Amino acid sequence: MRAVIAEDSVLLRVGLVKVLEAVGFEVVAAVGDATELLAAVEEHRPKVVVADVRMPPGFHDEGVKAAMVIRRQWPETAVLLLSQFVEERYAADLLATNTSGVGYLLKQRVANVDDFVEALQRVAEGGTALDPEVVAQLLVRRHRDPLEKLTPRERDVLGLMAEGRSNAAIAAALVVSDSAVAKHINSILTKLDLPPAEDSHRRVMAVLRFLEVG
């Protein structure tokens, strides 16, 4: 599975290359700015891109803008953005048109290699990975009716759903059975007037749209 990395910090860029290669990705390019990123994607057509939100020359939102170009011109390429801080609007920009094959994580998540790799693989396979801190802020911001209808456990489940986790992953995180998770999700969808859907991407899209990200 081919990957392109865009990160201006040489140390982090080298570290990401080593992590990806260790789990079977073929890193076909590792670049330091958004212009080089777009050129690398056009040349190599990777399965996934891992990119910093802020890159030269302005260190503002170059990575986000490049990611949106990639999603528009090469929709088969998944994109995982990394950010130093929680910046909801960047997550919203990335997720505004499509929640399949996209992710937004804080850089600190890279330190937990297993979790980072799991999120990256989920994105590369067409899923979604949204940082728990971003989800938490969205839930706090939207903590009013109809979210007020949800029980504390249902809000926990909703947060993990919004991160892009499967039912099995939610069950493991909350130490409950798969059937309990399914019941919570059905209850959440009913309370939020969202139609039940077997397809996980549609489910995540529905949740993220409700959270006013999509």
Question: What's the topology here?
Answer:
Layout: E1 2-6, H1 10-22, E2 26-31, H2 34-44, E3 48-52, H3 62-73, E4 78-83, H4 88-95, E5 102-106, H5 113-124, E6 128-130, H6 132-141, H7 152-163, H8 167-174, H9 178-191, H10 200-210
Parallel strand pairs: 1-2, 1-3, 3-4, 4-5, 5-6
Helix pairs in contact: 2-3, 6-7, 7-9, 7-10, 8-9
Task: Kindly describe this structure.
- This protein has 214 residues and is an alpha/beta fold.
- It has helices spanning 10-22, 34-44, 62-73, 88-95, 113-124, 132-141, 152-163, 167-174, 178-191, 200-210; strands at residues 2-6, 26-31, 48-52, 78-83, 102-106, 128-130.
- It folds into 2 domains: 2-130, Response regulator (Rossmann fold, 3-Layer(aba) Sandwich), CATH 3.40.50; 135-210, Rossmann fold (3-Layer(aba) Sandwich).
- The chain is built from 10 helices and 6 strands, in the order βαβαβαβαβαβααααα.
- A 6-stranded parallel beta sheet has the order 2-1-3-4-5-6, sandwiched between helices.
- α2 packs parallel to α3 (62-73), α7 (152-163) crosses α10 (200-210) and α8 (167-174) crosses α9 (178-191).
- The protein is elongated and about 45 Å long.
- The mean pLDDT is 86.
CATH domain class of the largest domain: Alpha Beta
Total number of distinct structural domains:
2
Tell me the number of strands.
6
Count of DSSP H/I helices = 10
User: What strand line-up does the widest sheet have?
Assistant: 2-1-3-4-5-6
Order of helices and strands: EHEHEHEHEHEHHHHH
